[in-house]
Amino acid sequence: MADDRTEQARPSLSRQFLPAVHGLLARPLSSYYLLIASAGLLLLIGLTMVFSATSVKAYAANGNAFSAISSQAVYALLGLIAFWICQRLPAISLRALGKYVLGVAVVLLAFQNLVVLVKDIGAQESEQVGPISVSLLSLATGGVSIQPSEIAKLGLVLWGADVIARKGPALGHWRELAMPLFPVIGLLFVLVGYNDVGTMLVLLALTVGLLWAAGVRMRVFTALGVLGLTGIGLLIAAASRGAGSGSAEAATNYRVQRLTAFLTPLDKCDLSDACYQLIQGRSAIFEGGWFGVGLGKGALKWGWVPEAENDFIYAIVAEELGVVGCAVVLALFSVLAFTGFRIARRSADPFRGLAAAAITTWLVAQAVINMGGVVGLLPITGLPLPFISAGGSALIVAMAAIGMLASFARAEPDAARALNARPTPRWVRLVWAPLPPLPAPRRSGQTRPPAQKPGPGGRTPAGTGGRS
Length: 468
Description:
By secondary structure, the chain is mainly α. The chain has one domain. It contains 18 helices and 4 strands. A 4-stranded antiparallel sheet has the order 1-2-3-4, covered by helices on one side. A hairpin with a 2-residue loop joins strand 1 and strand 2. The longest helix has 34 residues.
């Protein structure tokens, strides 16, 4: 009996060995500060690495080594504005915007796919339709380029979280999943996957994170996985007949090459084609060693690695900053993942919890797919590394997603109470963010939220009161 009492009184490992970390995490706004720190450091590393990867190429092209980084800095500034706007928007506004963002994404994707199909646009080609330049992955007009698939990610997060939050425990029935969630997700998979299998995989991961946070049954995930793999197989088969990012009919299936190259032994792989980027990525890791050759001193970016500032920027990190630099980037994404899921778990509002889980799954899954492809553990899909790769709409949308997470972190019950207990000056609230709403007061004698009926699979639906 004494042993039982001793065991119960024994503090957790975090209290024994990491009291300082435990104390920091126990603070009301710890999620908010962790999120800002991890995303901000990733953005700074990204700007530095984009400059390192593009300076020589830009100087050779137009005599200005800062031309590429100037463009990326503008996108970063626009991303910070998107972060600021999304941090200020209340949850009710985000829920209302979801269907419009998703609708815009569907219209743009349908237009893009139609032009690609009719004009038979290839991987490095574009076609002018009036004032709009259409390529395989983007639309451009007036010098502004956007990727509709990035807007689709944000739209699916907002619209999907709103739909699931409205359905609540009824989501356990198949008919509730069938209408309208699955048809819309299936349409997005087709529209996005026709040109970009990598982004389709991110949408699949985002959907899985959304449904897992909602507490749906395991068989739903099994069915969704089977449908997703079947869809990927059909899109790969379609590429052999010239669809999307595939090559011309009867030519070598480009998608099959990209997705299977990492499984092919190096002595049997075509080093001048499918395995070229894979070999260069491994060479960068070998050249960098533990501490790298030094920032700006890497040679592989000088034309050896295609898309060194974008898809394969992690290879440049490996060469110039070494294994230590790669580990720092990996650690920052790990902190981002921990913080995002922590926000989802601690959110009292169902919509905020679901959206936080979906955003975190999206960003982390995309980072894992990118880094796994560079080091040869996963297929190369052409996905950018969030916050680090060069790019416009991808960076702006990712920063907008971080702004939403920051808003959700400030709305955690403890954080909201702390912010309202000592309100900041009015000018600070006008410049930065308004005070979050206070959580609903507990009833007299109530020490915790009332128990809710467990959702499908035995888990409590996200944000319905069954979590603290």
